[in-house]
Amino acid sequence: MQSSEQSESRRQLLKWLAASPLLAFPGLAGLAAQTPARAPQKLPDPMLWAPADLQDLITKPGDAINVFDFEPVARRNVPPAHFGYMASGIDDEVTLRANREGFLKFQLRPRRLVDVSKVDMSVDILGARYATPIVVAPIGGHRAYHEGGEAAVARAARAGNHLMILSTQSTTSPEDVMAARGGPIWYQLYATNKWEVTRAFLARAERAGCPVVAVTVDRNGGRNQETLFRLQRTDTRTCSACHDRSSLTATYDGRPMYEGVDLSGLSNIQSSAMTWDTIKRIRDTTRMKVVLKGILAHEDAELAVKAGVDAIVVSNHGARSEDSGRATIDALPEIVEQVRGRMPVLVDSGFRRGTDIAKALCLGATAVCVGRPYYLGPGRVRPARRRAGARPVAHGAPRHHAAGWRAVDQTPRAGHGAPGLTAWTEETRKDAICRADWGFSSPSYWWP
User: Fold this and answer.
1) What CATH code would you report for 69-435?
2) Residue 148 DSSP one-character state
3) Most buried residue, 13, 87, 178, 287, by most Cβ within 10 Å?
4) What b/e readout covers 216-230, taking b as 16+ CB neighbours within 10 angstroms?
């Protein structure tokens, strides 16, 4: 005798066949109707009692439960073209989804009975001490999302004592951002294919007091940002009212880093001609420490060590360099293994939760750079309180997961002393995480 589940499956199959124009024949619908009554439905496991409701958006930053709550608000309130620029990857956005899905491949291995009553997440990065390993990643054009620009984000970074990296495309000068931060910031460099431009950027950052330059090495071609292009079609504003695209100089007019810089001879700011000789020339030119941002292969990590680079950032530019499908959390282990502690290894792209950060630290990252979430925070949750939006992302998130991260950090092992930061060794780090190749999230698209 058939079980109720088998009967139900048979009934559903017959109903589908009866409805199909390709397989329709007389009597099939009647046969489907003759199957036993539908068995009682099972409840989903696990049960989702409080799904996010995209029709019920937060109205003030304090209502946010996690950083994901900011994105639909930004989608509603930020002009479509601006939102599309921020949210899009390139091509099919395989890498954009992979950056999030990659975290599902790794599991934390919690250890119990570890004292986490006193939390210390501080980290040393190239000689400077910061309160947490969460870094404010470089993103250009802040004033397109928040009138306070990079200075407002710098004040949020100051509140949590986070390292901040300023983009070449900043809408605020490095001097003003550093004043708002209350301390040194790193400078992110788009070198271009013209050495005189590179040298001018380096000199400006060095005069401003930046101790480190992070050279972007993955911006060597154009971008097919299909999400941006689709959303641009829905934007009713006249873009030329704010953006003069008549020449490269006009495009970047008003950007502080470009003041007095001769862009003649360039058709874009990409660095398609960059080689390891370029990196050597940069090192020979500046007193700033040099970091390479955009490393994804262990071979390049080894070349960076040999070139005397001070640190690297494992990055796919938030899935905007190429649609390789390779998540940074997947690339991180081979690079950490190759570097073997000879330089700090930072990582970015796709980080949204404290557990994401904990996994990267367990895999050997020195620190994690976060970009889009703090961009979304000021995304016009409520005009009178936009500045506050950056703080839950840049400052509140580490507190929320502090205990869990410290529990990993303090994993006790025989022969390694009492639980605490002094017990954090290569062995305990690897012991705190394992790989689990299962489960992927569904993609979500922002275009209509």
Assistant:
1) 3.20.20.70
2) T
3) 87
4) bbbbeeebebbbbeb
CA dist., res. 385 & res. 378, Å (int): 8
Strands in 37-142 per DSSP E: 106-108, 123-125, 128-130, 134-136
Q: What is the DSSP letter of 349?
A: S
Q: If residue 311 lies in a helix (H) or strand (E), which one and from where to where?
A: strand 311-314
Where do the structural domains in the chain lie, given as residue ranges?
Answer: 1-44, 69-435
pTM over 0.70: yes
Top pLDDT among 373 and 180 is at 180
* Closest of 82, 139, 145 to residue 446, by C-alpha: 82
What does DSSP say about strands 433-435 and 106-108: parallel, antiparallel, or unpaired? antiparallel
Distance CA 250, CA 263 (A): 10
Report the alpha-carbon distance of residue 70 to residue 63 in Å, rounded: 10
CA distance 242 to 79: 13
Of 26-30, 133-137, 159-163, 434-438, least confident by mean pLDDT is: 26-30
Element (H, E) at 376: helix 372-376
- Write the pLDDT tens digit of every residue in 332-372: 999 999 999 999 999 999 999 999 999 999 999 999 999 99
User: Looking at the annotation, which residues are catalytic?
Assistant: 317
Are 177 and 170 within 8 A, CB to CB?
Answer: yes
